[in-house]
C-alpha cells in the first residue's frame, strides 16, 4: 500500500449535537457527541472527555449533559423539548467555550406511504414514497435519512418547498438492491434554512455521506467565544422527528 504524506490534522473540535423529538415520547433523553479531527490514516476517532456540556432555553431552564461511560458521549435525562422554542448550546473544553443557537422546528405528519416496482433511474427498481402536507405561506426545509441492511450508512436527502409551498410534498427512496422483505428505517424532520444550506455543502463534498469527517472549510453555527479562529466543526440543530419503518412487499400481478 502506498501512503501519501498528508498534512496532519489541526485537532479541531467536532460537535455532533442533534436534538430530535418524537412527540409520541417525552424527548427527555438526548445525547451530544464530542470528538476531534484525526490524521487521515487514523482508524479511530479521538473522543473528547471531561467537557462541560449544557443547553438553555428562553425560560431560563438549564439542561446538563453528563459524560457517560462511553468516551465523548454526553447525555441529558431531563431535557424538555418544546416546539418553536429557542435553545442555546454551551460546550466548554480545554479552557474554551463554544456556543450555538437554534429553534426546535415542527415537522409535518406523514399522510401515507406507497411503493412502486417501476422506480429508479431506469424504472426497474422498487421505490418507496411517503407524502406530507407542507405548511402554507412560509418557507420550509426538510431532511430525510433512510437506513436499510444492505447500505453501510444511511442515505440522506434534503429538499425545500420551493414551487410546492402549501401543497402536498413527497420524499422517495429507491435502490437497485431493494427487494421485497427489506425493511426501511426512515427519519423525516423539518430543518432550518441555515442547516439546509450547511447540509447541502456537506453532502456535495462527501458524496452524500455526512458521517465522514466534516470538511474543515464548511463551518456550521457553532462559535468559539474564547478564540474565534479556533472554531469547531458541526452544527447544533433541533427538530421534531417522524420515525417509521416500512417493509417492501411483493408486487401483485
From TrEMBL:
Domain of life: Bacteria
Pfam families tied to this protein: DUF4249 (PF14054)
InterPro entries tied to this protein: DUF4249
Protein's recorded name: DUF4249 domain-containing protein
